[in-house]
Design the sequence.
């Protein structure tokens, strides 16, 4: 890329849906097969050419920074045993990117978490990736969003068509078609609308490419739904002004923010792995046949 784009990963949520597992373990560190969810997100940013990552932390989230730090004792032990495969996996997370951390302080919503990145991001465009949404590494999304932002200069958000009965779980976009079937113009945004009030079934999923002007908007954004500073409200102001584009994602997405979907994500990713799929596929078929 022509400039050094930074990525911001908000990870300050309490993870109450996964209690008691998240009483002492950040939800972003819950394993998806054999890697914590947040590592998949960092790997996605790196695959898109981003090597500077800022993670927004909350209280009791030190496990996240520890995961991306080196562990000399463990590495030395594995090296002495000659277990180079495990050693490479341990060092991989440490060497992934230039990773920084900042605390959100009081949890005031996603918009507030993004605003906390202002000092680190500066005057450059940047990507925001939410850890609840895992995008399959075989499907392109962030690269397309960065390209659309660079070409248009506009904020770009990721959209996905969902069942209208589920739209109340998401931010929802009103859209107009463009010449590209995978890109739409976003004319309005509503946070978690009722089915009957939703302008479409295009849900906002957790990927954004933002320009630094978003910080000025977030600074004056009042608390909205849930008493929190909503990123959706700031994006609505942009959509009504200079404009926002949406990249429609039609690939594989795994929602790890819901308990049932988290389990599905583990199964879906595991069966596609060379080291696990051969054993799991026939077992799953037999298990399902007995239900």
Sequence:
């Amino acid at each position: 890329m022509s400039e050094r784009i930074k990525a911001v990963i908000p990870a300050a949520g309490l993870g109450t849906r996964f209690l008691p597992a998240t009483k002492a373990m950040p939800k972003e560190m819950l394993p998806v097969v054999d890697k914590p969810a947040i590592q998949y997100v960092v790997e996605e940013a790196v695959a898109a050419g981003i090597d500077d990552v800022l993670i927004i932390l909350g209280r009791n989230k030190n496990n996240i920074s520890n995961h991306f730090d080196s562990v000399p004792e463990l590495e030395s032990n594995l090296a002495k045993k000659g277990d180079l495969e495990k050693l490479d996996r341990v060092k991989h997370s440490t060497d992934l990117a230039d990773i920084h951390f900042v605390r959100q302080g009081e949890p005031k919503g996603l918009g507030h978490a993004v605003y906390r990145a202002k000092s680190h991001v500066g005057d450059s465009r940047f990507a925001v990736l939410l850890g609840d949404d895992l995008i399959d590494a075989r499907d392109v999304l962030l690269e397309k969003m960065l390209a659309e932002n660079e070409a248009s200069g506009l904020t770009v958000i990721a959209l996905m068509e969902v069942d209208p009965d589920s739209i109340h779980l998401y931010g929802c976009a009103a859209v107009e078609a463009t010449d590209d079937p995978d890109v739409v113009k976003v004319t309005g945004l509503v946070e978690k609308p009722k089915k009957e009030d939703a302008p479409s079934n295009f849900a906002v999923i957790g990927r954004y490419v933002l320009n630094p002007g978003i910080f000025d908007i977030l600074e004056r954004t009042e608390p909205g739904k849930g008493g929190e500073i909503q990123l959706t409200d700031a994006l609505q102001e942009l959509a009504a002004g200079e404009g926002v584009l949406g990249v429609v994602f039609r690939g594989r997405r795994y929602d790890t923010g819901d308990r049932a979907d988290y389990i599905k994500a583990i199964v879906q990713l595991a069966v596609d792995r060379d080291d696990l799929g051969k054993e799991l596929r026939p077992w799953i078929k037999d298990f399902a046949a007995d239900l």
Q: What stands out?
A: The chain has a mean pLDDT of 91. The chain has two domains: 6-257, 259-291. The CA atoms of residues 134 and 254 lie 5 Å apart.
